[in-house]
């Protein structure tokens, strides 16, 4: 079984000389890789102690870049240890969800009166024989 890294541990390794990165539910030690990163060290340092999945994916990293992760793996992230996964995008996610809720409400707004209208005509049809 691979090692479980808690949020506390992830946070404890969030400086330039000792840096863990959380990506796709796994924790990677990027300390030695910082100087080699083609995208510079700042971008990785900025993701220290948080979920870098979205930042990493947004760049459209190559398969070679993904393959490099294998050598840096420390272990699995302990999802129950505190960090709300994808913390960087938490608010964006929340607003997307709010958007979906609004969309659902507006669908209902049309659906309910239409159903009522349909029911009314059905009732008329059955009681009077015409619409
Ligand atoms: C340990 C994790 C990472 C590895 C192994 C990695 C690896 C690489 C590699 C190999 C490239 C060259 C292009 C490619 O092959 O896709 C690259 C480019 C780049 N990476 Fe990463 N990367 C990591 C994390 C990140 C993170 C967290 C960010 C945050 C935004 C980032 C931002 C970038 C950017 C902006 C470039 C483009 C550089 C350019 O073309 O000028 N990388 N990365």
Descriptive account of the structure:
The chain folds into 2 domains: 4-85, Roll (Flavocytochrome B2, Chain A, domain 1); 90-128. The protein has a 5-stranded mixed sheet with strand order 1-5-4-3-2. With 131 residues, it is α+β, with helices and mostly antiparallel strands. The protein has helices at 7-12, 41-45, 53-59, 63-72, 90-128; strands at 4-5, 14-15, 18-23, 26-29, 73-77. Helices cover 51% and strands 15% of the residues. The longest helix has 39 residues, at 90-128. The chain is built from 5 helices and 5 strands. Protoporphyrin IX containing FE (HEM) is lined by residues 21, 28, 30, 33, 37-39, 43-44, 47, 52, 55-56, 59, 61-62, 64-65, 68-69, 72. Pfam families: Cyt-b5 (PF00173). Residues 2-78 form the Cytochrome b5 heme-binding domain. This is Cytochrome b5. It is found in: Endoplasmic reticulum membrane; Microsome membrane.
Task: Tell me briefly what this model is.
Helices cover 51% and strands 15% of the residues. With 131 residues, the protein is of the alpha+beta class. 15% of the residues are buried.
Strands of the biggest beta sheet: in what spatial order? 1-5-4-3-2
Number of domains: 2
CATH architectural category of the largest domain: Roll
What gyration radius follows from the Cα positions, in whole Å? 25 Å
The CATH C-level class name of the largest domain: Alpha Beta
Low-confidence stretches: 87-91
Shape: elongated
Percent helix: 40-55%
């Amino acid at each position: 079984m691979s090692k479980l890294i808690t949020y506390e541990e992830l946070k404890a390794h969030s400086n330039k000389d000792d840096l863990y990165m959380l990506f796709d539910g796994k924790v990677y030690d990027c300390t030695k890789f910082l100087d080699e990163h083609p995208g510079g060290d700042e971008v990785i340092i900025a993701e220290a102690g948080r979920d870098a999945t979205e930042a990493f994916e947004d760049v459209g990293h190559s398969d070679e870049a993904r393959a490099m992760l294998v050598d840096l793996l420390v272990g699995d992230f302990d999802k129950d240890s505190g960090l709300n996964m994808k913390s960087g995008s938490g608010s964006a996610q929340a607003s997307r969800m709010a958007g979906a809720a609004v969309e659902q409400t507006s669908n209902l707004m049309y659906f309910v009166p239409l159903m009522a209208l349909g029911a009314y005509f059905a009732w008329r049809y059955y009681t009077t024989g015409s619409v």
